[in-house]
Amino acid sequence: MWNELLSTLQDANTQWVLFGSILLGIASGVLGSFALLRKQSLIGDAMAHAALPGICLAFLLYGTKSIGWFLVGAALSGLLATYFIQVIINHSRIKEDTAIGLVLSVFFGFGIVLLTKIAQSKNGNQSGLDDFIFGQAASLVGSDVKVISGVAIVLLIITFLLFKELKLFTFDRQFAKGIGLPTGFINALLMTLIVSAVVIGLQAVGVILMAAMLITPAIAARYWTNRLDRMVIVAGTIGALSGILGTILSSMASNLPTGPVIVVAATLIFVISLVFAPNRGLVSKGLRLYRIRKRVARETVLQTMYDLAEEASLSNQSMLFSREQLITRRRMANRMLNKNLRLLNREGLLNQSGGEWGLTETGAKEAYEVTFNNRLFEIYTMYEMRFAYLQLAANDAWEYDEIPSDTLKELMELMATHEHTPQLDPAHFAKGEKYYFANMESKGINKRKREVKSS
Amino acid sequence: MSYGAWIMLTGSLVGVTCGIVGCFLILRKMAMLADAISHTVLLGIVLAYLVSHSLEGIYMLIGAGIIGLLTAFLVQVLDSSGVQSDAAIGVVFTSLFAFGVILLSAFAGKVHLDVNHALMGEITFIPWNTLTIGGMDLGPSAVWMLGSVLLINLILIFLFYKEIKISSFDPALASAIGIPVMFIHYLLMSMVSITTVASFDSVGAILVVAMLIVPGATAYLLTDKLLVMLVISAAIGVIAAIGGYYAALVWNISISGSMASIAGLIFAMTFILSPKHGLMSKIIAKRSIVAEQS
What we know:
The complex is a heterodimer. Chain A is an all-alpha fold.
């Protein structure tokens, strides 16, 4: 198999095709990242479809097949399509997706009309224009590849030189305008760059699949990093990698068209990224979710024990509770409760006597911490707007010891007004005494409330 | 009926069927999903052929229906796992389409399915491919297929009109009052898939998109009422089909391509001239405001 591979690679034509598809993969990956971040991935699809009438017109005007004129024609009609899409969005109530689909299909339909016109003319059969619909990477010759790689390198150099401007424009158009960047020009430039990337890819992967070259490497790269510069590099690499994979696979088996194989290779890389990427991948997301669920279940049992103990000591009842009592207090799946009770027992936080459970010394301390933290969070959510300056990244990241001390004081005062302060002091429990009330006054309030309720 | 009449009837049926379904796609901002489905239907047709070894319409309908729903489902899955929705559509349809093309070329000798035919359709062959039951010639089978799909669509829309309407205009309200929004979504997606397959033979995979989106978008610029929009959209579909047929006769070009081009022309004219949402009326309105102010 390796010999076969080596001999395939020694073939000059395969080398050209390989070289072309690598450069194409890099260029479309890099530019696709910008399109993706601007949420314009599908505009690439429209540009590719819209290139067809341009190619046909170039052929009708010039008379023979010439890759240079084809590129010009394709680029012009691609840009025209983009312009139409933006006009339709800006000047009517038609939404972006409808505008894209409309322009795409009408341009493509017109392209097919021109294609049938060409087929009837005398030199129609030598045009090979059909190749542009599905792509014929295998039929690329040296001169085609020189044009493709020349354009790809120019695109990469422009992107490199204007990286800062493009980045600013992509993420914050208003700000870019504010500091005096010519946003109209940058928009036109970016569109031209994307159109050029689409156009050089048409011969290799074809009108329909070109969109994948822009979208798939970029969306796969998005999973590996949060920085644009790294994303651009990763997307370029993925594009190149799928170019290599596609070319080699299709050159080794007969009847395998290169373009679709490149796209399938890119999709495979995307699926791998989607599942296994660190942080954003499904596996690591699932693991994180599992860990959070586990922690929440454990904390729920502890807090429920604390709540029950708090109430029981108000009325001087037993500090041991049955599983039924726990479930009535906070609904929980039976299996989950049993598992956590066993776990906490092993950790020495709970002890069991006669089917009833109670907090141990260390258990009381931990349960107090958990309850305090969660009740503080409840208070925070009640006054979320007042504490908006805390800028919590996510609600599950709440830890009270990371809150600034003045804010913590304010929150604790609010907690007292709402009679939410945990009443059982674990410090007393640690000394081997029974539970004591941390605050006699609020106990009084609580008692009164209960009397009102029962009457 | 004459040859030309059958072609016009087929085209008009495509126009009406696509025009009606297309309105909902536009209102639900899912036009690109239709584009995606029209591409992936190719995979469905190839798979249906490989499984059933026949090019009978019913197998194609089932295969394409399943793949169409799969497309909608995969896009939904990617969307909910954090991929931005335009990229989700792009990834799903290109990969399924690429897979379809690979299968097609791998089994090229066995499948009597020309890719160009699949993409561009061949409405000129429609009148010869007739349906005969018990020795009776009942006319082109494509007409029967399109007619039954149109009937199914109309029945479904009639039955679920209120639900589809509410969930198109206000999905939040719809789910709040207990309408199964996801069910309606997949119902529409299956309507799009079967419409696409039925129209596939006559106009091809990509021009189906034109027939789905353009009449609806044009009607959307002409009216604010859903029922009126459906009627206008269907009418524009018919006009585009018949106009396209005559234009194709005159210049001797692809019928499906000229249908899409005529539809595009109708849209362009409406875009400029529409009394309510057109470019001209907006400019005139702006002028009159400026005149009042000065």
